[in-house]
């Protein structure tokens, strides 16, 4: 049996959970290696050898060290094409182009405002950092605009890239989970008919339920 | 009519990324102007190509795409045997190239794009540069470039020893920043500086700049 791949970082990190979701969709065995962020372990020289920006996740598979969650996800899909969900990154070039397009939309348009809101609404209170209401309002407006576009798209297709669940949808799971369950601003998603339907579908997947379970257990 | 059409202006950094790739791959294409002053990109029919109302929009026959980094990936894949190969080695190296493409998108671009806007674009429109934003983002970009300096001491280009999309994606913002006070951030780091010289000297990039002069 192959050595399990290693993922470095806590499951509660949005970027780490993105990778975990992908590994579970693809049925790829992994070992989660803890990194103590509150103690600044990610800033130490040993960790920076595998992640020079001092962020989680880092990832290792058969001697290859990778970082950046979306690059790790693409790698997992390309290396383990025949495992688990075979269509996760598309089974033909046109499908893949559409998935890449919506993955970039997630990374460039959805992630910036939603990450700020996740930090301000879900993490700042836990870390006893004062929330910035101006920043919250600005980013709610930005996120609203993006979700307006998603609402229209998800009235045309079942998932973002087409009619199959893909890496593009998966990439949205981590931030949306916090915003819908912890932030008190879940109506941004649930008040929109198509976005709400899409969120229910993607968050009900077994792979994501397992990730949430890991998060709740403090993995 | 060429099957490949790019909708947008060659002055846009995102459009520049796609144009550079088309020239590197030696592909025929048509550049379709979008009147951004008149808000053409926020209306139909543009929105049916990019619902986010941003340039570039892209067509290859019936295929429509948006997001420059998805378009360049598509071109590299679909036209793999044409022009510049954008790889050097096996799937292990491909994975590492993928990492540095994400680094450009999520570490470099947020700081660089803000500086491009404040230092290069705003002055052209007679708008005032926000010096606090410049200071904040120069500091952020400096930290990113410190990592690049270490990486480029180990590897000729970011992903591997050949020029790939991981390098190309930086060109539009770097070109703008070289014309501003932010140039010092690149010049002061020898490996970064040599890399900047190499990638900006590519003939395909000069063709993109020539489009800006038309």
Descriptive account of the structure:
The complex is a heterodimer of chains A (219) and B (214). By secondary structure, chain A is an alpha+beta fold. Chain A contains ten helices and four strands, in the order E-H-E-H-E-E-H-H-H-H-H-H-H-H. Chain A has helices spanning 14-25, 45-48, 69-79, 93-126, 133-156, 167-170, 173-181, 187-190, 193-203, 206-216, and strands at residues 5-8, 30-33, 58-61, 64-67. Chain A is globular and about 45 Å long. In chain A, 44% of the residues are buried. The model of chain A has no long low-confidence stretch (mean pLDDT 96). Chain B has 214 residues and is an alpha+beta fold. Chain B has a four-stranded mixed beta sheet with strand order 2-1-3-4, covered by helices on one side. In chain B, helix 1 links the parallel strand 1 (4-7) and strand 2 (30-32). Chain B is globular and about 45 Å long. Chain B starts with a strand and ends with a helix. The relative contact order of chain B is 0.14. Chains A and B meet through strand 4, helix 3, helix 4 and helix 5 of A and strand 4, helix 2, helix 3 and helix 4 of B. Chain B: It is found in: Cytoplasm, Cytosol.
Give the distance, in angstroms, between the N- and C-terminal Cα atoms of chain A: 24 Å
Q: Give the biggest sheet of chain A.
A: 4 strands, mixed
Radius of gyration of chain B: 17 Å
How large a portion of the residues of chain B is in β-strands, by DSSP E? Answer: 5-15%
Shape of chain B: globular
- Strand arrangement within the widest β-sheet of chain B reads 2-1-3-4
Number of helices of chain B: 9
Described by the principal axes of the CA atoms, the overall outline of chain A is: globular
Q: How many helices of chain A in DSSP terms?
A: 10
Structural class of chain A, by secondary structure, is alpha+beta
The main pleated sheet of chain B reads as: 4 strands, mixed
Largest sheet strand order of chain A:
2-1-3-4
Percent of residues in helices of chain A: 55-70%
Distance N to C terminus of chain B: 21 Å
Radius of gyration of chain A using CA atoms only? 17 Å
Number of DSSP E strands of chain A: 4
Poorly predicted runs of chain A are none
Weakly predicted, low-confidence segments of chain B: none
Protein name (chain B): glutathione transferase
Enzyme class (chain B): transferase
Pfam families (chain B): GST_C (PF00043), GST_N (PF02798)
Catalytic activity (chain B): RX + glutathione = an S-substituted glutathione + a halide anion + H(+)
């Amino acid at each position: 049996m192959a050595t399990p791949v290693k993922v470095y970082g806590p499951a509660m990190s949005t970027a780490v959970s993105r990778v975990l979701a992908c590994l579970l969709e693809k049925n790829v065995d992994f070992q989660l290696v803890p990194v103590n962020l509150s103690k600044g372990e990610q800033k130490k020289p040993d960790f920076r050898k595998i992640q020079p920006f001092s962020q989680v996740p880092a990832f290792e598979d058969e001697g290859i060290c990778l970082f950046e969650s979306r690059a790790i996800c693409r790698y997992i899909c390309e290396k383990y094409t025949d495992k688990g969900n075979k269509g996760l990154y598309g089974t033909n070039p046109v499908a893949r182009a559409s998935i890449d397009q919506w993955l970039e939309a997630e990374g460039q348009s959805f992630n910036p405002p939603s990450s700020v809101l996740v930090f301000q609404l879900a993490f700042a209170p836990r870390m006893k950092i004062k929330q910035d209401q101006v920043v919250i309002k600005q980013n709610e407006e930005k996120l609203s605009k993006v979700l307006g576009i998603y609402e229209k798209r998800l009235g045309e297709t079942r998932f973002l890239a087409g009619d199959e669940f893909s890496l593009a949808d998966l990439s949205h799971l981590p931030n949306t989970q916090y915003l819908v369950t912890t932030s008190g601003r879940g109506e941004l998603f649930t008040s929109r008919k198509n976005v709400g339907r899409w969120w229910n579908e993607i968050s009900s997947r077994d792979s994501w339920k397992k990730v949430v379970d890991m998060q709740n257990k403090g993995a | 009519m060429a099957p490949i059409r790019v909708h947008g202006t060659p002055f846009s950094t995102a459009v520049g990324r796609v144009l550079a790739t088309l020239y590197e791959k030696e592909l025929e294409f048509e550049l379709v102007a979008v009147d951004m002053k008149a808000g053409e990109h926020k209306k139909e029919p543009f929105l049916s190509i990019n619902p986010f109302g941003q340039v570039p929009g892209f067509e290859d026959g019936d295929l429509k795409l948006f997001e420059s980094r998805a378009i360049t990936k598509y071109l590299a894949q679909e036209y793999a045997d044409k022009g510049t190969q954008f790889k050097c080695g096996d799937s292990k190296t491909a994975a590492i190239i993928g990492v540095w493409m994400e680094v450009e998108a999520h570490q470099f671009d947020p700081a660089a794009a803000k500086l491009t806007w404040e230092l290069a674009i705003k002055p052209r429109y007679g708008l005032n540069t926000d010096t606090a934003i410049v200071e904040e983002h120069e500091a952020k970009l400096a930290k990113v470039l410190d990592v690049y300096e270490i990486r480029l001491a180990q590897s000729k280009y970011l992903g591997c020893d050949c020029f790939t999309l991981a390098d190309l994606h930086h060109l539009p913002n770097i070109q703008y920043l070289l014309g501003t006070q932010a140039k010092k951030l690149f010049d002061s780091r020898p490996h970064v500086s040599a890399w900047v010289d190499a990638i900006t000297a590519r003939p395909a990039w000069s063709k993109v700049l020539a489009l800006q002069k038309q």
